[in-house]
Amino acid sequence: MKKILNDPSTVVTDALRGLALAHPELLRVSTDPAVVTRVEPTPPGAVAVVSGGGSGHEPLHSGFVGPGMLAAACPGPVFTSPTPDQVVAAVREVEAGGGALLVVKNYTGDVLNFETAAELLEAEGVEVRTVVVDDDVAVTDSSFTAGRRGVGGTVLVEKIVGAAAARGDSLDRCAEIAGRVNSQVRSMGLALSPCVVPHVGRPSFELGEDEIEIGIGIHGEPGRERIPLEPADGLVRRLLEPVLDDLPFASGDEVLLFTNSMGGTPPLELYLAHGIAERLLAERGIRVRRSLVGPYVTSLEMRGISVSVLRLDDELTALWDAPVRTTALNWGS
Amino acid sequence: MGCGVDEVVAAFHRVAEVITAHRDELVDLDRAIGDGDHGENLTRGFTAVRASLDEGEHGSPAEVLKLVASTLISTVGGAAGPLYGTALLRAAKAVPDRVELGPEDVAAALAAALEGVVARGRAEAGDKTMVDALVPAVAAAERAVGDGGDTRAVLAAASAAAETGARETAPLVARKGRASYLGERSAGHLDPGARSTALVLGAFASPGPSPSRTPGKECEG
């Protein structure tokens, strides 16, 4: 294992310290328990959108804390969900009478910890709604598994519901919008190489020089099948077809196309893939109205990509365009 | 005679030692069908448990169980934190004001723990989870009580049954938790949660490290 770190057991808090020092105007970091909060206070009566999950997916979620997006994020250990006390501490700090919307990726650990936190907060009299993001079409057998995983679509949910909270929407309305984004987005990813979790020290799975893994999650867990590497046209088609067939997306749809790097894929390859995806969408009569390209939901240093497609309506488009100021997404403000 | 507060504290120290000693094994089991964090998370959690047990006095076995539960919930993360935490909270509720845990109390605590895990995790027997170690453990504990076994015998029966239950998760296809995404590929591996459950019960049933063994620090008949 070759990594820039001192001690695997302090990697998350060490990185949070750097994050706090780099962006003092935007966010505040406490490490016991680990919570990243927005410097700008939640306006009285507004909804506080709070998310969190294992570390190793940066900029998700800490990089999305700021005006127009998250009020707070709870980073867990690498690839491990945060604990309920983190979520409770985060909500206590940013909730301002309008209640809290928790954005949770559908993994057993995340769901159980946020569920426990929600019970504790409700017992304190805080109004809480939860939206569970499950956009990964690689999980087909969802009735015999823990269900579809939350992957790339999480960023789109957090941006759009963050904008809804910023314009003063109620907690119920925010929950409805977040649920709508989740119901209209589908994603799938592939890996060219695995990642190495610092405290494990070895690759999360083995891949031959000419093999790729299709349908990976974002925790270095193996995917659905292993196939020989092929040209980019074929790879992007393998991701996009299950995504489009699932919702299903139809000719005439207007969408947001999000091409995501799993951490180790260079922008050159990422834009190449994005161009192919947009062409494949055009072939089906689907118009890309908005785009997002970059490393936003990563798996440490994994080489690979995921593609997410969100069906837009006018309200979702306007909320996507609304101003946002975070370390990872920043426009209009 | 049964299991008093000091014995329960000593048992959790043994659990911490056993989990720490098996950290790498649990990491490897979880790496095969999950994401490799189970050994690390439980070691972190039980290390914190030892520290919180060392702070101050404890009034009853139920209080110890509650303290261990809340420590695990706030330090383990993953699915294991809330599942172990809920299990121990429910166990504490099943034996609220006992000064000593007798054979029936141990069986009742185990049954309550199982109920808690099922309610929180929504898993059933055969889903390849910690439920597959707990279900046979509860049944064996109840049988041992019926046979007139003492506390020690009930714990030993539960531990042996959990061990077998954990071993029998190997051929199962996971239907809950992160391993479920692998489908058929999850077969052929032990479930790490069932394995750690068997380790915890094993440490509870074991007499503890022999050199420093002091009377009254193990559950007696």
TrEMBL record, chain A:
InterPro entries in alphabetical order: DhaK_1, DhaK_dom, Dihydroxyacetone_Kinase
A GO molecular-function annotation: kinase activity
Keyword vocabulary terms for this entry: Kinase, Transferase
Tree of life domain: Bacteria
One matching Pfam family: Dak1
Domain DhaK: 7-331
Protein's UniProt name: Dihydroxyacetone kinase, N-terminal domain
Organism this protein belongs to: Actinoalloteichus caeruleus DSM 43889
UniProtKB/TrEMBL annotation, chain B:
SUPFAM superfamilies with a match to the protein in the record: DhaL-like
Membrane-spanning parts: none
Keywords: Kinase, Transferase
The organism of origin for this protein: Actinoalloteichus caeruleus DSM 43889
Annotated ranges, domain DhaL: 6-206
Domain of life: Bacteria
Name listed for the protein in its UniProt record: Dihydroxyacetone kinase, C-terminal domain
SMART domains assigned: Dak2
GO MF annotation list: kinase activity
NCBIfam families noted in UniProt: dha_L_ycgS
